[in-house]
Amino acid sequence: MAENKSDRLPQLQSQQALVEFFDTHDMGDYEDQLPEADFEVEVRRDRYLVSVDGQLMNQLLEAAKGQQVSVELLVDAWLKEKLLKAS
After folding, report:
1. pLDDT by residue for the chain (87 residues), tens digit each?
2. Are the beta carbons of 51 and 57 closer than 8 angstroms?
3. Other CB atoms within 10 Å distance of the CB of residue 64
4. Nearest in space to 34 (alpha carbons), one of 21, 50, 53
5. From the CA atom positions of the chain, what is the Rg in Å?
6. Residue 57: strand, helix, or coil
């Protein structure tokens, strides 16, 4: 926390300099000097949950571990591969 709340935010030459400044300073001490941000967020659901048998999940975990990838990536790749072959 800054010792004096009247400290002015320095004029920094780059976004990286600003990031480095706030690595060592409390952003709350400069809140009144920061510009207000206005932006929209579009929330989209692009992930789905599917039920998998426990024994099958154990096999998937082992296969993913053997390939050093996450189960999600492994299953995604296998499903894409299977769909391409089915087309």
Report:
1. 444 455 788 888 998 998 999 999 998 899 898 888 899 988 887 788 899 999 999 999 999 999 999 999 999 999 999 999 998
2. no
3. 16
4. 21
5. 24
6. helix
pLDDT at 48: 85
**Amino acid code (one letter) for 1:** M
d(CA 46, CA 83): 18
Find out whether 74 and 63 touch, Cβ atoms under 8 Å: yes
Q: Amino acid identity, residue 73?
A: L
Contact partners, residue 30, CB within 8 Å, separation at least 6: 2, 7, 9
Amino acid at 63: A
- Classify burial at 69, counting beta carbons within 10 Å of its beta carbon; exposed 0-12, middle 13-18, buried 19 or more: middle
Residue type, 45: R
Q: Scanning the structure block, which residue is given the tokens 């400044």?
A: 21
**Dihedral of alpha carbons 56, 58, 61, 62, sign:** negative
